[in-house]
């Protein structure tokens, strides 16, 4: 599987993907004028430009949301790389080394179980 990153970085990644998709849609619409020409090309270009603009506005909303979450996130020091990282919620990942971070020992990874407790106690209960 792929390596996941922190929640803030994932929101920023979705914002970047929406930006690229919106700009690509606009370029694709402009190609309608080049290849089709005339009134039909302008109509297709207009439709694609409006769709691209809506996708870009979605990107702005995602970036704004990520920024607002970033301002209220708790800054902690990562135990692995010793760099300050922002944490959202009960569990998150380090923005630099992707180490799983948690406030609650139940959600901590098995290798980070507190000393003196069993790893089975530190893991979240299974849903069976």
UniProtKB/TrEMBL annotation:
UniProtKB keywords: Cell membrane, Membrane, Transmembrane, Transmembrane helix
TM stretches of this protein: 12-37, 43-66
Protein name, as recorded: DUF2614 family zinc ribbon-containing protein
InterPro entries for the chain: UPF0295
Annotated spans, Disordered: 109-128
Coiled-coil blocks: none
Domain of life: Bacteria
Entry keyword Membrane: yes
One protein family per Pfam: DUF2614
């Amino acid at each position: 599987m792929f390596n996941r990153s922190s929640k803030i970085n994932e929101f920023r990644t979705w914002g970047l993907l929406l930006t690229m998709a919106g700009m690509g849609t606009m370029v694709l619409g402009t190609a309608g004028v080049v290849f089709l020409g005339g009134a039909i090309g302008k109509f297709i270009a207009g439709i694609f430009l409006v769709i691209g603009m809506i996708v870009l506005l979605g990107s702005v909303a995602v970036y704004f949301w990520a920024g607002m979450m970033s301002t209220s996130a708790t800054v902690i020091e990562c135990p692995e790389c010793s760099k300050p990282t922002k944490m959202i919620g009960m569990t998150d990942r380090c923005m630099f080394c992707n180490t799983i971070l948690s406030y609650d020992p139940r959600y901590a990874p098995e290798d980070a179980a507190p000393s003196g407790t069993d790893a089975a106690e530190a893991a979240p209960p299974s849903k069976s």
